[in-house]
Design brief:
By secondary structure, the chain is mainly α. It has 15 helices and five strands. It has a three-stranded antiparallel sheet with strand order 1-2-3, covered by helices on one side. Helix 4 packs antiparallel against helix 5, helix 5 packs antiparallel against helix 6 and helix 9 runs antiparallel to helix 13.
Length: 393
């Protein structure tokens, strides 16, 4: 079977068929698309929506490489899916059902793929079509129905861990009471943003490599408990930070030297510091994933990945106004308030750190699956040696 080439989808015939249909799709769903973009821009829980179309193309690439279609032939059944999506959207608008009508966007996209590219291509791309559903914001009723249990889970889990490690903590609903004060596990701390982002990442990782169906299903399903666990750890770390900063502020107020005299603080955060942070994250990512694919392994040698991470760290240190030491108790208490503020940069950093932890846990899961369930192919040398030692028939 020959390797997939994207030029097969860029022929004049396919482009001339696809462009008018996509134009009609954009016109018919102009209002929902603008509404989604406004939610992505203003609601942190859905800010990942900008990345979903790009990741969907990546999923499509891996799927087409895995099972390249033999032929590209239009299928008239796609027109049926398009008409069904249009009818359902008209019905939902007539009955004042907003969210179900928005989901018909996926049905129309599936119909366009099937109509223009045919059944063999559709069998590879249906995953990408469903993947686009992750960019559609939920109705507030559905969102709150999931966010509230996640808030309670985060509060209960953090209470148990904090008690286990020796902190005095009490819980009332979604509010944790510590010696340093109370921590409210608000909707922003429910972990739904982390859950949605990691489900998207889990689906992408499941289809990056050739795997049997049960392995892919396990990888995607495990993204949910891993994201919930990481959010519990995030709330726990905020509680620990609150206690440490409160206790250290008391020591500094009494004139005793503590760890805060050597702790770094970022007095400014420039745009170049964000570039350095991206380089640091990219270098660490390549260090972890360089063995996942032959092409990536050739590009991301350990030395190159390490240099990229070090360069990013140096840029962050040089451009972020870094200085060491907190001189007063007020500075420490102010830092505590900043960390507990869901809209602050340090608070958001906890979320990014947990996303990184979730990625590492997913990588460990892939390695465990490979260790216990994937058999290593015999090398060519071993095969030739076995053939040479075998007696003639």
């Amino acid at each position: 079977m020959r390797e997939w080439d994207w030029n097969r989808l860029l022929t004049p015939r396919i482009v001339l068929m696809m462009v008018p249909l996509l134009g009609l799709l954009g016109t018919a769903y102009a209002y929902p698309l603008m509404q989604w973009e406004m939610i992505w821009r203003n609601n942190d829980a859905w800010s990942h929506g900008y990345l979903i179309p790009i990741l969907a193309v990546m999923v499509a690439h891996f799927r087409l490489k895995e099972r390249p279609p033999g032929r590209i032939q239009p299928c008239i059944w796609g027109l049926g899916l398009i008409l069904a999506g249009c009818v359902l959207r008209i019905w939902s608008r007539t009955m004042m059902f907003g969210y179900p009508g928005q989901i018909t966007f996926l049905l129309v996209v599936a119909g366009i793929v099937l109509l223009v590219l045919g059944w063999e291509v559709f069998k590879a791309l249906w995953v990408s079509v469903v993947y686009l559903g992750l960019m559609i914001p939920w109705s507030p009723k559905y969102y709150e129905g999931i966010a509230l249990p996640l808030q309670r889970t985060a509060a209960v889990g953090a209470e148990g861990i904090l008690s286990l490690v020796g902190f005095s903590v009490a819980r009332e609903g979604n509010v944790l009471y510590l010696a340093s004060g109370q921590i409210a596990v608000a909707e922003a701390c429910s972990g739904l943003r982390l859950l949605m982002a990691f489900v998207a990442l889990g689906v992408l990782m499941a289809f990056m490599y050739r795997r049997v169906w049960w392995e892919r299903g396990l990888i995607m399903l495990s993204s949910v408990p891993i994201a919930v666990l990481c959010n519990v750890i995030r709330v726990t770390l905020m509680g620990v930070s609150s206690e440490w900063l409160h206790a250290e502020a008391g020591r500094v107020a009494e004139g005793a030297a503590g760890w805060s005299a050597y702790a770094p603080q970022f007095t400014a955060w420039s745009g170049l510091a964000w570039v350095g942070l991206l380089l640091l994250i990219g270098g660490l990512f390549l260090l972890v994933m360089r063995g996942g694919e032959a092409r990536l392994a050739r590009i991301a040698t350990p030395r190159r990945a390490a240099l990229l991470a070090v360069a990013g760290a140096v840029i962050v240190v040089m451009t972020s106004g870094l200085r060491f030491g907190y001189e007063t108790a007020e500075q420490l208490l102010e830092l505590r308030q900043v960390i507990l503020n869901p809209k602050s940069g340090p608070h958001q950093a906890f979320g990014f750190a947990m996303l990184g932890l979730a990625f590492v846990l997913m990588w460990v899961e892939l390695r465990v699956i490979d260790l216990f369930f994937v058999e290593e192919p015999e090398s060519e040398e071993a095969g030739e040696a076995g053939a040479a030692e075998a007696p003639d028939a």
